Amino acid sequence: MYFHNHGEPGPGLYLPSGWSVNRARWHSHGTTLPDPQWAEHLEPLLAEGLYRVRSAFTCCEKNCRTFEEELLVQLGYNGTAEPILFVPEWTAAGLDFPTSGTLVDPKMLDQLVPLKVDKREEPSADRAFLH
Predict the structure, then answer these.
(1) Which of 79, 103, 110, 123 has the fewest Cβ atoms nearer than 10 Å?
(2) How far is residue 18's CA from residue 35's CA, in Å, rounded to a whole number?
(3) What is the pLDDT of residues 84-118, one digit of tens each?
(4) Neighbours of 10 (CB within 10 A)
């Protein structure tokens, strides 16, 4: 769920309509909140996007996956807002973004440093939007 401070029919909650390259696509029509102050009770999430790992950490208490220092990762979320890290890989065709990633303890996200990436604006055929 995503709170958007404008939109159709107005400020409110928008549900994901799907995912594209590990980023949520949002329905263009949402549900307005009875009172805008309700938004203050929503938990903010770290933005989806590309990050580098500041210092090595493991995904969870089970230590299933280690994310090494300076590793390039893509942060995304599943439908219940659990953070997922995707690790891009170099291939003969260029940088490849996998479609599956590793669930990560939200407390570990402070080890991520956002990267600046230029964004090309492209019209969407289904009018769904990415954030």
Answers:
(1) 123
(2) 27
(3) 999 999 999 999 999 999 999 999 999 999 999 88
(4) 13
